[in-house]
Every structure is written in C-alpha cells, then in structure tokens.
C-alpha cells in the first residue's frame, strides 16, 4: 500500500482514483472493495478487525479511495505506516451535503433499481453497501421506483464533520496532503514524487454522473443483466409448465404437485 485516500465520497474521490490509475497505481475503490473484499469488510464492520486483517486485505494494492476504506484510513495506515495519505474535502459542509444528496438521488436510476431487485450480485452489493453506510453515517440509502430516495443528511453531515476533524488532527503531517482535485496534477505529483503527465487531469462523477457511467461501462453490470435474463428465463419456463399442467389435469391435482416439481427443478 502506497497511498491511502482519506476523503469521504463526493470530495473528488473518483477523479483522484482516475488520476492515480493514470500514474500507474493499482487502486481499490468502492466496486473493487465489493468484488474482492466484501466478506472481509463485512466481518470488520460487524465484528471488528485487526492490523493484520488490513495488511492481508491490501498487501497487493497500491492505493485505496472512497468508501469504506476512506472511513478506516487510520486503521489501514497502521497496517502500512509508510503509506502516504491524501485527504480531499469540499470548500464547506453545505456544498458537500448538496453534492452527496445529488448522488443519493442519482442512485434512483431505474436500471440500478431493477438490478438491485433481480440480480443476485447486485442484491449482495446493496446489502453490503447498506452495512457500511450504516456504520459510517448511521443511515443508509433507501431507493424507490416512484419517489425520491431516502437518506438522513443530518446524520451524514455530522459524520462529515467528525471525519474531517479526525483526519486533520491525527494524520501524520509529514505524510499528509490536503488536496483538491481542482488543483490538478502539480501538487499531487509533487507529493507522490512522480512526473507530471502531459494529459489533462481527469474529471469524474461531476454532478453525480457516476451511476450513469457505471451502468454503461462496468463489466459487473453486464454480469447483473445476464443474471436477470437467466432468472426471467427460468421463471418463464416454470410459468409455462405450470399453465400446461393446469390445463392437462384438475387444478387440485396440479397444486398438489407444485412442491415436488419445484424441488426437482432446483435440486
């Protein structure tokens, strides 16, 4: 582990992730933490963890960004004391809260809600997300098809205050960069002691565009869509067979056979 990004979500974390990847770092963000470390994170949040746990989780990772790793920056740094810490924050609390609220509402995307309902992978992701959001903010996102999502912004802002104060007061000053992605490459590359790229600094998730980009580009979404197609295909087959049996036998006889038929299908 070389870099720990301690800024909460909606402080430029996606742009920072893209910048670090352009500099050659292997970065674990929200999705990577879910894909490869969901079980470990669930254990840590529900039961607790040790320095050895974090060292084992991230021994082959160069950098971490966003939730839930940003919230556990201190514990990760104890496992990797030579790592540098980049702390991003917004100009003020209200600006952050407005941006966070926009992200929450963007999660009400119909396709994402459909994936949460019918894809086993996304059902696990939603459950995992709710576990760490509740641990961090004392609340979690509740999406709805026909009305705005719910999220307790009062509790979220209180977490933002406490988290920022903890980082600024306790992060080792010789290893800390307080950074805004608006500052671009120069302070970041100077802090990391690497050359400045010739390409423009990346800008990601501006005005909560992350969900749309994620649904269009990420391979895990394709996996979720395939799972939905399989689920619907199996359901259609079961329904068709049920209708066929209904017309071939009396309703009472057909209903008695349902449990044994389902058992044969799934076993």
Write a brief structural summary.
By secondary structure, this protein is mostly helical.
Number of individual domains: 2
Order of helices and strands: EHEHHEHEHHHHEHHHH
At the first level of CATH, the class of the largest domain is Alpha Beta
Structural class based on helices, strands and sheet pairing: mainly alpha
Within the largest sheet, what's the order of strands? 2-3-1-4-5
As a whole number of angstroms, the C-alpha radius of gyration is 23 Å
Extended strand count: 5
Helix content: 55-70%
Oligomeric state of this protein: single chain
Biggest sheet descriptor: 5 strands, parallel
Number of helices: 12
Distance between the termini: 44 Å
CATH fold naming of the largest domain:
Rossmann fold
State the CATH architecture of the largest domain: 3-Layer(aba) Sandwich
Would you identify the regions where 5 or more consecutive residues have pLDDT less than 50? none
Mind explaining what this structure looks like?
61% of the residues lie in helices and 6% in strands. It is mainly alpha-helical and 267 residues long. It has two domains: 3-217, P-loop containing nucleotide triphosphate hydrolases (Rossmann fold, 3-Layer(aba) Sandwich); 236-266, no CATH class. A five-stranded parallel beta sheet has the order 2-3-1-4-5, sandwiched between helices. The mean pLDDT is 86.
